[in-house]
């Protein structure tokens, strides 16, 4: 496995693999941040942890450029919903996701693909499904997310029909408010997605419920007819 800047960190399955997992980190994180928790789960899955293409201070990564001053001002105003935000740089981020997915499918040929993401990575996960070319997955896990570039997403929301989605969000999230998560949940349900809604008492974080849900998806994945 490698964890060079911009590289993908790979984790091998524990036992006979039953699925493939593509996990997208959040802003100012790295694949190595999430790897220890994933190792502790001992999942029977090939796991790809790609790094965002944008370098950040302290060796951290992002999926697209972030204006820290504007972000700080947004956070000072309180929790928000980014449905009307159209950040540039998402095309390069989606290309990184598609590249990791192709490599993952080589290692895990024929296995169901679970796409998961936290915060910025969760929004990118949906962006990758709803923008062209669309990424085909068998299940989706969104942790502490908001809608993004929603006018771009609207014409293709039908792609989510029948897709199992785990949506986890903290009541006390100071970044994306619970209202933003509820709006995302309602959007997914209206599109026909099979949503497991898991609010929790916490903030902008990945709770235990998220990891339990991911393990459930890996061990008993739902396959859609494509």
Quick synopsis:
The chain is α/β, with parallel strands linked by helices and 226 residues long. The protein contains 7 helices and 9 strands, in the order ββαβββααβαβαβαβα. β6, α4 and β7 form a beta-alpha-beta unit.
Structure, described:
- With 226 residues, this protein is an alpha/beta fold.
- Helices cover 35% and strands 20% of the residues.
- The chain is built from 7 helices and 9 strands; from the N terminus they run ββαβββααβαβαβαβα.
- The protein has helices spanning 31-41, 68-76, 90-107, 120-130, 150-153, 178-190, 208-219, and strands spanning 8-11, 19-24, 45-50, 54-55, 61-62, 113-118, 139-143, 164-170, 194-200.
- A 7-stranded mixed sheet has the order 1-3-2-6-7-8-9, sandwiched between helices. The chain has a two-stranded antiparallel ribbon with strand order 4-5.
- The model has no long low-confidence stretch (mean pLDDT 93).
